[in-house]
Amino acid sequence: MRLLWLVTAIWAFSFSLIGEFLAATVDPYLAVSSRMLLALLLFSPFLLKYRTAPKLALQLAGIGAVQLGLMYLLLYHSFLYLSVAEVLLFTILTPVYISILDYYWRFKKLHWRWLGPALLAVAGALVMRYQQLSSDFRLGLLLIQGANLCFAFGQVAYRRLAVGNVGSQKQHFGWFFVGATIVSLFATALFANWQRQPDTPLEYGILLWLGLVASGLGYWLWNAGARQVSANQLAVMNNVLIPAGLLVNFVFWQHAVNWWTFSTGSGLIMLSLWLAASTNQDNHANKTAATNTAD
């Protein structure tokens, strides 16, 4: 869990920087493609030094293309149909997709009772993020759920790879950003507004932080951490970023916070995290598989 908590802190601060200094001036496609290129540059020495089996390289590139490249493409298209608040609201369903995908991937069936922690995490995020919806939100909702599925799929797929411990994973993780970079550059070529390029030292500095730390180190450590916890713990941690981000915005930028909804929602998410840790989905799944084999 320590890796997931560390990356949550990094991402909470990074999202705040994006909202304060980049969102209004820098095109999001340009920002994402620059982040992916910088992350790829960070891992390029390992790609040059260590040989990766072609099958593993393709698997990692495919996961990166979906988890980041396609996810960002769908996410930013959703802004054509949704307000920022609606986008943030609709992203809270990712934990459910992770729990479903992980369990079904292994056992080709579902046990809905094991969705409890993920659903509770969604409820906690809903308390903090709910607002009145616009009348034409449906297409945007579908796009966001596509983005949620892409991000969930990438995390679950990475859990299934044979890539060794955290240290050895960095030798091959650059291929993840190869896939993500290809898709993000393609999206940038098609949809970017080239008039909204970064043009101040502060904006370039933030992009360097986002590319090398939040994206490069962040996604490596997050996916590595995803392999060290149960599926439900991973699912819930996807929504811990919401109260963390709100808290950072309050502490550093004095954004208003509804403390009643914040404390209630955070309490539900922490409760869901405790349930995920105490109800070990993986042990139950193994017992179920053993029973079926014995039958």
Number of strands: 0
Roughly what is the average pLDDT, rounded to an integer? 88
Structural class by sheet pairing and helices = mainly alpha
Q: What does the overall shape look like?
A: globular
Order of helices and strands: HHHHHHHHHHHHH
* Portion in beta strands: under 5%
Q: Helical amount among residues, as a percent range?
A: over 70%
Oligomeric composition of the shown chains: single chain
Low-confidence spans: pLDDT under 50, at least 5 residues? 283-295
Number of discrete domains: 1
Distance between the termini: 36 Å
Calculate Rg over CA atoms: 19 Å
Tally of helical segments? 13
Largest sheet: none
Brief sketch in words of this structure:
The protein has helices spanning 2-22, 28-49, 54-78, 84-90, 94-107, 116-129, 138-159, 166-169, 174-191, 201-226, 231-253, 259-278, 281-294.
Describe the structure.
Mean pLDDT is 88; it is low at 283-295. This protein has 295 residues and is mainly alpha-helical. It has one domain (2-294). The radius of gyration is 19 Å and the shape is globular. 78% of the residues lie in helices and 0% in strands. The chain has 13 helices and no strands.
